[in-house]
Write a structure and sequence with these properties.
Asp_endopeptidase, globular, about 140 residues, Peptidase_aspartic_dom_sf, mainly beta, nine-stranded mixed sheet, Ribosomal protein S6 modification protein, 1 helix
């Protein structure tokens, strides 16, 4: 992999292939420490004695009847300060992200972002060592196929 940082705009299209999510519009937010993903119906389960979460994702905000149900290993439960200033506990999962032809592992908090314009927010922790942000641009990476 090229060690150069990739230039991105404030909006990009990404995929979370292990979660079954493709062509998801993501807001790149240097003001947010952690990344977050809008999910519904979060439940904790045990797999081989380890904690996992099951949840539903509606990857297309224009077709909310489309639902992807998935599971992921629970790696943490973390207190996060949301954009409206309130603190909430969130489940954290780790998954590869595919953006601009590159792939790397990120941590994502699972939350209700239904009142937000974009279903996913990519925060500083996920960008570190990977991305540079041009705040005047959008969709510099093209589509993830």
């Amino acid at each position: 992999m090229n060690n150069d940082k990739m230039l991105v705009g404030v909006l990009e299209q990404c995929s979370l292939p292990e979660l079954g999510i493709f062509d998801l519009k993501v807001r790149i937010d240097t003001g947010a420490q952690t990344s977050s993903l809008h999910v519904d119906n979060i439940k904790t389960i045990k797999k081989n004695g380890k904690p996992w979460v099951t949840f539903d994702i509606h990857p297309d905000i224009y077709h909310v009847e489309d639902v992807v149900s998935t599971t992921a290993k629970l790696i943490d439960i973390r207190w996060v300060k949301s954009s409206n200033g309130t603190r909430q506990q969130r489940y954290v999962v780790s998954t590869p992200i595919k953006l601009g032809g590159r792939s790397w592992s990120i941590q994502i908090t699972l939350t209700d972002r239904s009142d937000m314009t974009y279903l996913m927010l990519l925060g500083r922790e996920a960008m570190q060592g990977q991305l540079l942000v041009d705040p005047s641009a959008s969709f510099l990476c093209g589509n993830e196929d």
